[in-house]
Amino acid sequence: MSTSPSSGLRPSFISPRQAYLAGVACWFMGMGLQFVMIPTLAAVYLRVSAQELALAQMSISIPQLLILPFSGRIADRTNGRKLLMVIHLLAVIPPVMIFWLVWSNNLSYWNLIVYGMSMGAIFAFSAPTRDALLTRVSPVNIQKGVMAAMITQFIAQLTGFTLAGIAAPLADPWALPAMNAIVLFIGFFAAFLLPSYPALSDDHGPDPGSKLTAGLKAIYHSRLLFPVLLMNLAVGIIFVGCFMVSFPLIIRDIFHGGQLEISIISFCFWGGTIATTVLLMLRKPVYHRGRLMIFGVLMGSIALFFAVTAQNFYAMCLASLTWGAFAGFNMTMSRTIVQVSAPPRMRAQILAFYNLGFIGAAPIGAFAMGMLSPIIGPQLAPALASILMLFLTISLCLFTDVLKITRLESESL
Questions:
Q1: How far is CA 393 from the centre of its chain?
Q2: CA distance 227 to 291
Q3: 11, 87, 185, 402: which sits with the fewest CB atoms below 10 Å from its CB?
Q4: Measured between alpha carbons, how far is 104 from 2 in angstroms, rounded to an integer?
Q5: How far does Cα 112 stand from its chain's mean position?
């Protein structure tokens, strides 16, 4: 089987890297709109309870818990270009459904649950497929390739947040799913412009087989992958859970905000992440990657504490900007470590487990925040979670080799 990309009918005016980054931009601009759309429709438009908001946010992640372990193996054995084209076409359907329901004033809470589960299932195939193609469209200096994709992702998300904020005073909430559907459909053409990327052959290592345990064993026995994915699991549960549930509740119940404020706080967080990623991209590849990753999580935990206990919205924005800046260290280093350390023929499968920790585990944190917030308050619940994250990170440093993870000598610079 051929392992090199085949241009086929692909136009020559755009490079594979440009087409790949265009697809990343379209997908994550849609995700940026979705980040604002779900809490806006649930918490502001439908005025649901904290528990119902948590369930709406969890509905996006729950399908990923079930599908990601299998979707990675499918991505390893499928033509990446064709799979991304199908994914984008399917992803257009759920936001079109929500657009029509909001436009006709027939939206119900359970429509959001169906939307979340549908998009969660589609995302479970998108993430490992797209991530596994990165080292094939950008095989030299993988850390910079990872950062270029992340910068594109974050800028696209910021654009989504900005569009959502601009739409707030100009149009009803139907504008959010409408814009989401449009950018995801444009992403189909970006995928079409990619060359054909067939599954890797035996030249890239032995076939790991079809067993789900193959990827888990590779992670468990790797001193590089195991602590990173364990850290990522904690980040998914605590950090993502707080961002998905606690932030919208604090904005609504403490600062009496809505769609515009949710857009602003999201813009602040991801703006900080972009700044850090650009800074890292301008310097040579980091050597002590494990140390920088841990530094980002420790300082991010402190910044999260100040964000959720802020006394006014402006202080919350500043703390969120700081949290995002430190999160950039963790996101960049952890993804780079996984990309360069995963066996080539298992890369999509292991990246699926990476995304499973970061996104798939979020329902646990979302559920905890949704249950605790009405009891101890929307600010105290995430504050305690940030303190727990500090203890978990210190424990990881004491009992694993995470601080010893460095750049591999075999990497191309």
A1: 20
A2: 12
A3: 11
A4: 50
A5: 20
Closest CA to 228 of 83, 110, 350: 350
Three-class SS of residue 303? helix
What CA–CA distance (Å, rounded) separates 208 from 225? 17
Whether the Cβ atoms of residue 72 and residue 350 lie closer than 8 Å to each other: yes
Q: Could you tell me the two tokens for 163? A: 């569009």
CA angle 11, 187, 268 (to 5 degrees): 130
Query: Vertex 16, ends 274 and 3: CA angle to 5°?
Result: 120
Q: What is the 3-state secondary structure (H, E, C) of 340-401?
A: HHCCHHHHHHHHHHHHHHHHHCHHHHHHHHHHHHHHHCCCHHHHHHHHHHHHHHHHHHHHCC
pLDDT of residue 260: 85
For 124, 127, 219, 227, 238, the CA distances from 354, given in Å and listed in that order, are 11, 10, 10, 11, 15
Q: According to the model, what pLDDT value does residue 389 have? A: 94
In whole angstroms, what is the distance from residue 313 CA to residue 321 CA?
12
Give ∠ CA 19-24-27 in degrees, rounded to 5. Answer: 125
Alpha-carbon distance of 407 to 405, in angstroms, equals 7
Inter-CA distances, 18 with 145, 149, 158, 364, Å = 12, 10, 19, 36
> What are the backbone angles phi and psi of residue 196, rounded to the nearest 5°?
-75, 130
Tokens of 166: 């601009």
Sign (positive/negative) of CA torsion 173, 176, 181, 186? Answer: positive
Torsion over CA of 59, 157, 142 and 120, rounded to 10 degrees?
10
Cα Rg of the chain, angstroms: 20
- Predicted TM-score of the model (pTM): 0.72
Of 248, 232, 257, 224, the closest CA to residue 359 belongs to 232
Question: Which portions of the chain are predicted below pLDDT 50?
Answer: 1-3, 8, 202, 204, 206
The pair of three-digit structure tokens given for residue 31, joined into one six-digit string: 């995700």
- Which residues make Cβ contacts (< 8 Å) with residue 49, sequence separation at least 6? 374
d(CA 124, CA 60): 10
